Request: fold
Amino acid sequence: MQPNTKPARGPLNGVDTPNLLATINFVAGQPELAKFQFRAHNQWVEGTHSKSAMLGFYGAGQEQNHARATYADSDHPTVLCGADRGPTPVEWLLHGLASCLMAGVANIAAARGIKLTKVQCAVDGDIDLRGILGISEEVRNGFQNIQVSFEIEGDAPAEKLNQLIEQARARSAVFDVLTNGVPVTVGIKTIQ
Amino acid sequence: MQPNTKPARGPLNGVDTPNLLATINFVAGQPELAKFQFRAHNQWVEGTHSKSAMLGFYGAGQEQNHARATYADSDHPTVLCGADRGPTPVEWLLHGLASCLMAGVANIAAARGIKLTKVQCAVDGDIDLRGILGISEEVRNGFQNIQVSFEIEGDAPAEKLNQLIEQARARSAVFDVLTNGVPVTVGIKTIQ
Reply:
């Protein structure tokens, strides 16, 4: 007689699969634990150079801190009259998209029992700067389009590896925000 | 007799205003120089941890490199079964938004002759993780909403400082992408 339950998955790809699946089941029973707020605090430095700190967030019912704060610089390149003290703001979006899809691929592969050996992706975003430079009202400010190109290697047929990336796309927070948009409010507090 | 041309703006806030305005005029006459492509290359490390490199980009008619490569880690926090080796992918979006608005504020202030002394912003994004965890089909994967809260100090009345932030929002590449969305294609190349 065949058991009709799937075998429990062990940890794989550095993912603690049993813990991840238990967490999902736990949150399913207590949906208030799923409410998270993520945050960045940004300080202007000079010119177009600014620096963000990312440390605290809210989630799983309480205030949380990352193990350590991360500080990230952003600037415009010299060809756009910046000091090039860091990547441009739009490159940080591409990093966010790449890393969101990548985390999904690893989690989903672990849940499906697929061992990954190498995964990488290139993310390119095309932008016509006549928008932000105020030269043309016909040209949008942001990217015209973004292309993600994955290379993936693991112990499964190409079709199964392709499905990992498809499912990562279907469950990606950043892919959703970038393709569907999100309401953003901008508030101001002046200091006199 | 009053001259009917505005005085030329000098450098201000660390912005080389004459160079910036000359660049805009130059690009206006050669629109192909405004076509840029920004890039991130991401490598899976382990679990939900990945690392991006940002170095090369295309723009102003040729391949360009930043002064140095920037490497950035991303991971899920331990409460979501990650190893917390860096900010989450969605926090990187918030950093991109903050730094884009901030660069705009500095450039626009310089163009308007307003000296800034301090500018900072907090960016918060609310997300219900029942989407990405696959618990509810009613809940979106991405942020429900994002709130940006600026503090700004400079040698202009509150109304003028507020207008800087309003204009930065109106000309922000990242604000446009996050609020209006952008087409994203995901391609796959498997290694067998």
